Amino acid sequence: MGPTYDLVIVGMGSGGTLAAEFAAGEVGLKVAAVERGPIGGDCLWTGCVPSKTLLASARVAHTVRTADRFGITGGEPEVDLDAVWARIKDVQGQIAATDDHPDRFRQMGVDVIEGTARITGYRQVTVTTDEGEVQLDTRYTLVCTGSRPAVPAIDGIDSVDVLTSENLFALERPPSSLVMIGGGPIATELAQAMVRLGVPTTVIEQAHRLVPRDEPELADRLGQILREEGVDLRLATTATAVRRGGDGVVVETTEGEFTAEGLLVATGRIANVDGLGLDRFGVPISAAGAEVDERNRTLVPNIYVVGDAAADRPRFTHAAAHDAVLAVRDMFFPGRGQPAHLVPWCTFTDPELAHAGLTAAEARERHGERNVTVFRHELAENDRARADGTTEGSIIVVAANDRIVGAHALAPGAGELIHELALAIRFGIGVDELSDLVHIYPTIATGVGRIGADRSFDTGRKFRAVARLSRIFG
Asked: How many angstroms separate the CA atoms of 272 and 292, rounded?
C-alpha cells in the first residue's frame, strides 16, 4: 500500500495549481499532485500567457503604425519576429520560475510527482514515473487534465505540418504567412496579432461571423475591424482539402484556394480524459469530457473532474480555477461553495470583446419579446474614447423585466469593464439602480452609468451636464 492522502490532484494546470494551493496551503490537507508535463498547463505554455504576450507586442506595432493619428511621427514598424517569440518564452520562464515552480507547491506541503496518472481504484491513483509505478491511496481524486486542440478531418490535412495553439509558441518564429481554419476566440486573437506584426493572414470560418457565441452585433463589428486592419476574413466558407504547394500549404475551400507558408487550425478542443481509467468505473467520457453534475462530481462520489476535462462546463482558465476550489470545498466542507452559473468571458482582441449572461436574442427567447429592453452606449459618444482615439465599439446591456440579464462590450479594457455588469446580473440589479452608482469621469465605464440614465428626459443633455460638472469639480 502506498502513501495515503486526503486528495490526489491529476493535472497541474489552472485548476490543479489553484486546488493544490487551496487544499494544502489554506486548508492544511495532505495533498499529492501528479503532472506529466511542465506545471502551468495550457494557460502558461500554449494559451493565455503566450497569446496575451503576443498581443502586447502586436498592440505596440499597431500603435507605431498609426501614431500619426495622435500627432506623433510614426510609420511602418520594424518587427523582429524572433525577438517577439523570444519575449514570449521569457515571460513564460518568469512565471514558471516563480508562481508555477514545483518547489513553491512543495513548500506548501504538496507532494509533486512527475509522471502519468491513471485511476486504478475508487480511492486509488497509480502513477507511472521514470523509476516505476507509484500507488497513491486517497480519500478524493480531482481530475484537472485540461484539453488539447482538435484537428478537423479535412482531406489531405495529415500531409502537411499543422500548427495549433499547442505548438505555435514552441517555434523560434512564426511562418511568414498564415491560413487559419476556425473563427473562434483563439483564431480571432491570433489573426489580428499576426497581421499587426506583418504576417499576412487569411481566416476561413464556416459560420457567418467570428466568435459566434458572442452578441452578434458586436461580433460583426469586430470582424469589420479585423478586415480594416488587413485580415483576409472569409466567413461562411468551408475548407474542403489541404495539400502541399505554393509557398508551403494550399487550402482548398468553397470560395477558392488560399496559399500560405503555414496552416494553423483552431476549430475546437478535445478533453484529455482518455487513458485515465474513468470509464472503468462507470463514468461516461467523450471528446467533450467526463460527465459531471453542477458541482463537478462524477458518478463515483469521491472523484471530481473540473475545467476542460469536464463535459458541458465553460472552457476558460477562470472557470477551471473557480470549479477546482469549489470541488475541494465540496469534498471537505459540503455546502460551503456555490456553483458558478454565470461565467463571463472575453476575447482579447483590440478592442476587446467581453460577454456576460444572455445575448439579446437569448433573452427574448427566454423572457419574451415584450419583456426585454436592449440599451446601447456607443463609444463614439464617450469622451474617454474620443480622447484616446478608440471610438470603434459599443456597450450593450440587456434587461428583462427591468433586471439586467446580459451585458456585452466591444471596447478597450472590456474584460475589466464586464465585471461590474456581471455583478449586476449575478445579484439581479436593475438598469436604473446601476445608473445610481457614480461612475468616474472620464472612463469608458461612464457609458455604463449613462445607459441607465433617467429616461424621462433627454439623457444626452443630462450626461453632458454631469460631464461639465465633473470637469469643474473633478
From this structure: 15
Read off the C-alpha cell for 219: 461580433
CA–CA distance, 173 with 169 (Å, rounded to integer): 8
The SS3 call for residue 270 is strand
User: How do residues 352-404 score in pLDDT, each as one tens digit?
Assistant: 999 999 999 999 999 999 999 999 999 999 999 999 999 999 999 999 999 99
Q: Using CA atoms, how far apart are residues 241 and 253, in angstroms rounded to an integer?
A: 7
How far apart CA 351 and CA 382 sit, in angstroms, is: 15
Helix (H, G, I), strand (E, B) or coil at 33: strand
Task: State what percent of residues in the chain have pLDDT above 90.
Answer: 89
Give 411 or 295, the one with higher predicted confidence. 411
Q: pLDDT tens digits, residue range 397-442? A: 999 999 999 999 999 999 999 999 999 999 999 999 998 899 999 9
Largest CA distance in the chain: 76
To the nearest 10 degrees (0 to 180), the angle between helices 216-229 and 185-196 is: 20
Whole-number CA gyration radius for the chain: 24
Q: What angle do CA 319, 320, 326 make, to 5 degrees?
A: 90
**Orientation of helix 81-96 relative to helix 48-65, angle to 10°:** 140
Burial-class residue 113 by CB neighbours within 10 Å (0-12, 13-18, 19+).
Answer: buried
- HSE on the CB side for 7, CA within 13 Å? 32
Q: Is the pLDDT of residue 304 over 70?
A: yes
Provide mean pLDDT across the span 318-341. Answer: 90
Angle at 2 between CA 271 and CA 35, to 5 degrees: 30
Q: Are 285 and 273 in contact (CB under 8 A)?
A: yes
- Cα–Cα distance for residue pair 396/398, rounded to 1 Å: 7
Give the C-alpha separation, 174 to 82, whole Å.
Answer: 8
Tens of pLDDT, residue by residue over 143-188, are 999 999 999 999 999 999 999 999 999 999 999 999 999 999 999 9
CA end-to-end span of the chain: 69
Mean pLDDT of the chain: 93
| Chain centre distance of CA 189 | 10
Q: Which three cell numbers stand for residue 373?
A: 429592453
The label of the residue with cell 500627432 reads 71
- Of 176, 177, 242, 187, nearest in space to 209 by CA: 187
How does 427-436 read in b/e, with b if 16+ C-beta sit within 10 Å?
eebebeebbe
